[in-house]
User: What shape does this take?
Amino acid sequence: MTLAGKVAIVTGAGRGIGRAIALALAREGADLVLGSRTLAETVAVAEEARAVGRRAAPLSVDVANYHDVQRLIATAVGEFGRVDILVNNAAVQGPIGPLWQNPPDEWARTIQINLVGVFYCCHEVIPVMRRQGGGKIINLSGGGATAPRPYFSAYAASKAAVVRLTETLAEELKEDNIQVNAIAPGAVATRMTDEILAAGDAAGPRAVSQAMATKRDGSTPDNAAALAVFLASEASGRLTGKLISAVWDDWRSFPARLEQIMTTDLYTLRRVIEARPSQG
Assistant: This one.
């Protein structure tokens, strides 16, 4: 029970990766405040959390709506008195296809949810965490954050921005004992996978092939949930400002290498130019 006595807010908690993270936190002892646009889904997750002995408050929340986010944070403080962990998971895939064919309102709406929603949640929760003397913020990255993702420009741009926001906010909060990190969850079979397959040619052959493989392999969010527990717990210590792959990075070894990791550009978006041999 590494999170006993902690209170966690999870957005997009009704299904997929958000649900998996919320229940993993609950199994480790955290009480939950669950936000999702579909109330019935968060109610179901809250019941699962209560079944393992945790308290849980489900809410209908659109993170693109500032007043909804204010209500989310106020509910957490009002019912539990504190917020120790914030998981910014809520996101949409947005329009699929070449940028010039994307409906402008759908493109902008994707940025509003995926990026501005993270800003809203951080904006409201950070004063609470600062008063408490610390906290953990975990943001979800995604495809396109570290490499081009053609035909998913809104999603890719928003997720790259979330990672840079993570790094920037981590620097701002270093003196406040608030650690901010991002998770790259890897391929997971979610509703977004179904959207890619339904889009067909508009998504591009590579994305469709990857989505088919993800569905075939039954990829689960368990790795992302385990990494979220690590980042939410004291095991991660002062690790902050990092983008960590739940699948490919050996994050379980991080505590033994923390000083090295925090003094290098490892696990960041910074550009590295390899030294070339001399031409002499």
